[in-house]
Amino acid sequence: MGKTAFITGINGQDGSYLAEFLIEKGYTVWGILKRNSVAENQTYRIDSIRNNPNLHLSYGDLIDLASLVHVLQKCQPDEIYNLAAQSHVRISFDQPIYTAQVTGIGTLNLLEAVRLACPKARIYQASSSEMFGNNIDADGYQRETTALSPVSPYGCAKVFSHNICCNYRNSYNMFISNGILFNHESPRRGSNFVTNKVAKEAAKIKLGLSQKLVLGNMEATRDWGHAKDYVRAMWMILQHDTPDDFVCATGISHSVQYLVDYVFGLLDLDVNQYVETDPRYLRPEELRDLKGDCTKMKTALGWKPEYTFESMMKEMVDYWMDFYTKK
Ligand code: NAP
Ligand code: F7E
Question: Which end of the chain is more exposed for a tag (fewer CB within 10 A), N or C?
Fold first, then answer.
């Protein structure tokens, strides 16, 4: 019999790719959806598997412990992927308490629900490079041993989740692994994150549907990989014989300015004519540079990415060109 997986955040960028990946592998997949007053768009990222008999969706919320216990008792998963979060760093400054409740305490709710309903299940926790803040090792990289020093409410909430997962792993002998993932993107990325904002607006400008792209910090650098490569890493982390923490990254970083130049270059557009900056997109405290060393992932699990920054950005630009051409 195939395995059963439970995914929180199943309709998000990563959750949707992971659900497709696991169904393809023969898993039965359960996921929770937050109640939303508009039902139509909520599952658009999982449209391709919406009617698959091996997909089961129910309403649930990370801040509602009872909803987690009920669904876990029903599905009795072998593997649990905790991907749900208020995941936008700048918005976490607008909604710090909500972010702490969902992205921090929500994880603790899930761990307690697992202890009550299915203590033998393996758990993947979506930790983040945002937890490092501005700490960088002397060689310019962040890795599993780099100290955590978050600079946003989101980063602080993720540190809490990361630490409570280590604590439950050690205290209760649970199989819990943290994947410390660096930025990962795709056409399914929310369009208020910088890669997809740039790809979408550049396509609109190219097609005469917009005149300006307005951004914040152009100097920040990020290590951007593709979400499809990273959900494969999540699965590999849970197949390992022991629970552990792994950094997942490409090891290559670019500035936001480079990202803009690259995307506008793909469409033969003049950056100086169309791109402006506005302080409203700055954060009260900035995380300047991220570049990950994933030697441990590569050595212990044999993971390597299939996409490059260039092939990923091309896919995103093509997606939006196609989207607005057909409209
Ligand atoms: P995303 O697209 O923002 O997806 C977040 C998901 O969480 C959505 O399905 C959302 O549902 C759900 N959600 C939000 N609040 C919830 C709640 N209270 N209860 C239940 N579900 C809730 O994020 P992503 O990019 O896929 O990232 C997946 C996870 O990895 C997140 O935990 C994120 O913080 C973490 N992470 C992401 C990156 C990255 O670069 N993408 C890097 C490191 C770590 P609705 O859409 O219906 O609100
Ligand atoms: O910003 C700069 C911004 O919002 C990237 C999340 O998935 O990765 C993500 O967090 C950089 C930052 O991602 C705009 O200041 C400039 O330096 O795309 P982002 P993020 O904050 O790095 C981590 C690993 C996560 O875990 C998070 O969940 O781009 N930037 N101008 C801008 N960013 C945005 N959003 N919008 C701008 O206009």
Answer: N
